[in-house]
Amino acid sequence: MVRQANAVITMMDTSTRRQVILRGISQNLNYTEIAIQLGVKRGDLINDIKAMRRSGDPELRDAQRVRQAKESGDNKSVSNNRDERFLSMTGLTINEKSFQNMVEFFKPEIMAILNSRDPEAAIRKLSGSTRRAMINNGILIKRTKPDISQQARDHLSDRGNSDVTLT
After folding, report:
1. Which of 70, 89, 108 delimits the end of a domain?
2. Is 140 helix (H, G, I), strand (E, B) or coil?
3. Are residues 69 and 32 in the same domain?
4. What is the mean predicted confidence (pLDDT) over 133-157?
5. What is residue 82's DSSP assignment?
6. Is 16 found in the same domain as 39?
């Protein structure tokens, strides 16, 4: 009889542990925090979770889906809010503003390329890091014959640069 009483307590303990584990996972707690709540070693908790996975526990899958939804929802909303706030303040997206800043930063190099007789040779005279930065930011087009992108040309012509000769 004593054994049966201990078995009942252990079973009740197991169901309670299971509920605490599921709640912790759905709240995006790490394993250490869940183990502290249960008062068990982290390794014991991991073994319990592995057993739940092996048995195909549907509530475990649900808890993991809830955690993933919270994670992805939080990350998206923060970045979307930041982008929307920036757009409302400046009238430009962050990418558009970054491109404008890079064109303004590299304006002397761009002007030298545009005003040279041989634009390809002028591009080759640039340092490797400058060329890479300009390619990565969409200012230069990397083809067999490198050239300044149309978007960069448009940006310079929109700014009213009278000394720009667009070819």
Report:
1. 89
2. strand
3. yes
4. 88
5. H
6. yes
